[in-house]
Amino acid sequence: MNTAVSSSVASSPVGRVLPGTLSSLPRWPVWATPLAGLIIAYGLIPWLATDYWFDAILIPFLALSLAAVGLNLLTGYAGQLSLGSAAFMAVGAFAAYNFNLRLPGLPLLVSVVLAGLVATLVGVAFGLPSLRLRGFYLAVSTLAAQFFVQWALTKFGWFSNNNASGVIDAPRLVVAGLAFDTPVLRYVFALSIVSVLTALVWRLVHTPTGHHFIAIRDNELAARVTGVPVLRTKLLAFAISSFVIGVAGVLWGFVYLRTVEPAGFNLDRSFQILFIIIIGGLSTIRGAFLGAALIVVFPLLLSRLGQFLFGGWFDSGVLDLSQRIVLGLAIVGFLIAEPQGLVALWSRALARTGRLLARRTRAPAQATS
To answer: Lowest-pLDDT range, 232-241, 266-275, 315-324?
Structure first.
C-alpha cells in the first residue's frame, strides 16, 4: 500500500518538480522561507504599514488566505470540488458570535475553536454526498450548503440575537486581558491564527493522511484497492477543511468587517475563494497566499488605473464589471497557459534569477583563472 501511495504522490503536482524550477540549484532548508516570511510579517510590516494597509489589504488578505488554505486542502489535495466555502465561513462567524454572547466569560480563543468545530460538523454533514458523488455533481451538492446556510441565518432571528436588520456587531478582540483594538493589533491577531493553522495544514499534507488525500484525488479506485480508507479520508478532508474555513470566517467577521451578517458570506465569496486557489495554484499552500494577494490587490490597482485613464467615468459600477471581466479572462488564461498557477510562475522566476546570479558569480572566477 505504501508503495502505491508513494508513487501516486510522486506523480502529483505536490511531488512533481516543475519544469524550470530550482531543482538544479542548492535548496534552502524547508523552514527557511516560512521563517523569513514570519520575520517580515511580525518584524517589519507592523512598523512600515499604515492603518489603511492593515484595514483594506493585509487583514482581508490573511482571512482569504486562510480560507483558501482550507479549500485547497479539500479541492487541491483531496480532489473534492466544493462551492460552499462562504457558507462554512458564515457558520464559523455566527457560531463564534453566539458562543461569546450566550456563554459570558468564555475566552475568545475558545470561542474561535468551538466555532471551527461547529463548522466542521456542518461541513461533514454536507460532505456526506461525496461518498457517492464526485466532480460536477459534488459541486452542486456543496452549493446547496451555500443556499441553506444563508436561508437559515436569515430566517431564524436567534442566530443574530433577533436583530431586525440581521447585522450584528462583532465582540471586542480580547485575549488574556489584552485588547486587540487598533489596526496593527488586529493584524497581529489574525496573523497569529493564520500562521498556526497554516503550519498545521502544511504538516498534515506531509503525513500519511495527506498522502491518502492525494491518492484519492489522483485515482480513487486505485487508492481503494491499495487499502486507503476512502470514505473516512473524504469525510476527514471535509472536516479539516471546514474547520479551517470556519476560523477564516471568524477572522473575516470579527477582525476585518467587525460586523457579522449573512450578506458578507454570499455565493460570490465562495467563487472568490475558488478563484484564489485556481489562480494561486492547486495542491500548494504557497499558492493560496499568492492567489489571495492578487485577488485583494487587483481591485485596488484596477481602480487606480481606471481613474487615471477614464477619470470620473470609471465609477464603482464600472469597476465591479471590469473586475469581473478581467478576472474571468485571467482565470481562463491560467487554466490554458499555466494550470499550476502563480506558484509555478514564481518558481520559474526564482530559478531564472538563481541561474543569472550563478552565471555572474562564475564569470569573474573564470576570468581570473
So the answer is: 315-324
